[in-house]
Specification:
Layout: E1 2-5, E2 15-18, E3 24-27, E4 29-33, E5 39-41, E6 46-49, H1 65-68
Antiparallel strand pairs: 1-4, 2-3, 3-6, 4-5
């Protein structure tokens, strides 16, 4: 999975925060490319990306990781 910045936000930095046992938070990304190569546009300043692989909304986190613990 990759994330990119730029474009409409005018900032070339993406800040990544790994939540223990949970998602990856991205700040400043313009889009995310999923495992299947599909490009997903980011509509918010911060997005949660699934790391457990069980989200029904991949690549976005839907909280399923809480049920897996």
């Amino acid at each position: 999975m990759t994330a990119a910045a730029g474009g409409r936000r005018g900032d070339s930095d993406v800040e990544v925060t790994l939540c223990p046992g949970g998602p990856m938070l991205l700040r400043g990304a313009s889009h995310v490319v999923g495992e299947d190569g599909a490009r997903h546009e980011v509509q918010r300043s911060v997005v949660a990306v699934c790391r457990c692989g069980s989200s029904a909304r991949a690549p976005w986190c839907d909280g399923t990781h809480k049920l897996l613990a």
